[in-house]
Q: What sequence folds into this?
């Protein structure tokens, strides 16, 4: 695909890592639904009625998965926006690839740690990537 002002290599990096992260978001939705059905914990009366259970908004087995999904949305959606702007600044392929790799790895590590109840310091790397790209975009577009 010819984006004109964005090199094909940068566009391919964005497409590759963006697709992985979009698939991760979709899989978190699937994990949340699976947890709800496995533990018969639903947020809506009509869903609970279908399985003979009751509404429960505080079951940690479901809420932990749901919060991990929300956390991904809070971090991945800004990343996709910032990364798109970032590739228009013509960064080096090496630096852009490392930004995208670090962010993607940090999201997977963060989710695994979150679901297992382990300390979750991996998110710092994802935040650092977003801040780095944002600062570089601000400087470029000033």
A:
């Amino acid at each position: 695909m010819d984006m004109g002002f964005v090199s094909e290599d940068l566009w391919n990096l964005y497409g590759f890592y963006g697709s992985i992260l979009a698939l991760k978001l979709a899989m978190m939705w699937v994990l949340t639904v699976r947890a709800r059905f496995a533990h018969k914990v639903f947020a809506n009366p009509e869903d609970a009625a279908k399985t003979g259970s009751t509404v429960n908004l505080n079951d940690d087995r479901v809420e932990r998965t749901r919060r991990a999904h929300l956390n991904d949305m809070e971090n991945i959606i800004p990343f996709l926006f910032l990364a798109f702007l970032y590739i228009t600044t013509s960064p080096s392929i090496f630096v852009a690839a490392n930004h995208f790799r670090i962010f993607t790895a940090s999201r997977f590590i963060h989710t695994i740690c979150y679901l297992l109840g382990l300390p979750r310091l991996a998110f710092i790397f994802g935040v650092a990537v977003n801040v780095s790209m944002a600062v570089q975009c601000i400087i470029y577009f000033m």
